[in-house]
Amino acid sequence: xxxxxxxxxxxxxxxxxxxxxxxxxxxxxxxxxxxxxxxxxxxxxxxxxxxxxxxxxxxxxxxxxxxxxxxxxxxxxxxxxxxxxxxxxxxxxxxxxxxxxxxxxxxxxxxxxxxxxxxxxxxxxxxxxxxxxxxxxxxxxxxxxxxxxxxxxxxxxxxxxxxxxxxxxxxxxxxxxxxxxxxxxxxxxxxxxxxxxxxxxxxxxxxxxxxxxxxxxxxxxxxxxxxxxxxxxxxxxxxxxxxxxxxxxxxxxxxxxx
Length: 258
Fold this sequence. Notes:
By secondary structure, the chain is of the alpha+beta class. The chain has helices at residues 10-30, 35-54, 58-69, 71-78, 80-94, 102-106, 118-130, 146-150, 161-167, 207-218, 247-257; strands spanning 135-139, 153-158, 178-182, 185-191, 222-226, 233-237, 240-245. It has eleven helices and seven strands.
């Protein structure tokens, strides 16, 4: 009589859970994009390769093995945006929130003011929403936005509600594009933002909303959108967007995130 014993260690359970979490995070990153279809195709090829190996089909297994062998390089090329987002999440969402950092060590854990003039930003958005003036405002946090800013016009001006409103007036030469705010300064205007690759967005989201989602997917910036059609205020963060915000809700959200 042959007895078969299956030994499951605690480390095996941890291993399975970690793989499940990793796959879930990958799914979240590529959900709603064309990349999920590519990932499904690659996974199907991999499963087919396993079946071919199990059936000892040497020639086909050898061909598919060569394809799988260079698959890592292909994955890096195809999923470079998703890998960038994944590393950004690790660097900003987890490591930057750690209480033990060099910055905290040398600053004696004294929390400094970000300098962002939330009241002026909220007031400008409220006024532009009332007049249905379209606006796109990017508030930098930890991510470097210099590449995006260099594509626009550098202002380096103090943030005031009147200046923000004047920039987005239809007759203003700076109204087309986004404003980037760093600290208490309007760093640049007329900046072109990368648009999102999410193909499942509702039809109500126009070019400004897609640009807001795009830059929020690639950086940790907060992006405020004022709709030119409806005057609704929205804010994008980490690839997600909250719509139809009241000025008080916008202020509360900014105060909790900055």
